[in-house]
Amino acid sequence: MGAETELKLAINEEYVAHFRQLSLLSNKASKYEGKQQLINHYYDTADQQLHKQCVALRTRLKGDGCWLQTLKTRGSSVDGLSVRGEWEWPLSSSELDFTYLTTEVWPEALRNINPADLQVTLSTNFERESWHVTLVNGAVIEIALDIGAILAGGAQQPISEVELELKQGSVDDLKGLAHEIMKFIQLEPCDLSKAERGYLLLNIGNSCEVNE
């Protein structure tokens, strides 16, 4: 199991170009990782049993043409800062592989689900541009700029977000870097994940939080 700690911030599209020009993204302490298109399909049962248990199960097509399966479990999110359990497995195709969902990772409340009952409930399609920033104390934080759309139930909603994910260091390092960025760019903490926003498009959102 990996514990993912990240800070999610909404950015107005008019500030995106200015964000890309921030000096902290172009100095020697920053490594540009490039852009890639990410297509994600989220699975659930017809009665949204996974969503009710605050579980997100998705497959992702990455820019390199490879598929990845990800399971995220119940976590907490306050002022955009979230911490939750996360597992990832490579896939040989776009098909969901239920054999990875062992009793070690799969919540007990969902163990009676038949794999055939899991269908794509919503999707996201966005371009991710990312940087790895090393702070003076050695902390490492990935900064991602996501621009695209959420698709659910025939409706869609734009994605315009900045995510800061802690790779090495403390939560204070994460908050400190966010504070530094917000001196130059207007950003708003966002506690709703892309998946949760998709469920809201389906009119079944609730207070549960499992981030993208």
Automatic annotation (TrEMBL):
SMART domains referenced in this protein's UniProt entry, alphabetically: CYTH
All copies of domain CYTH, residue ranges: 2-205
Source domain of life: Bacteria
Pfam families: CYTH
Record PANTHER family: INORGANIC TRIPHOSPHATASE
Name recorded for this polypeptide: CYTH domain-containing protein
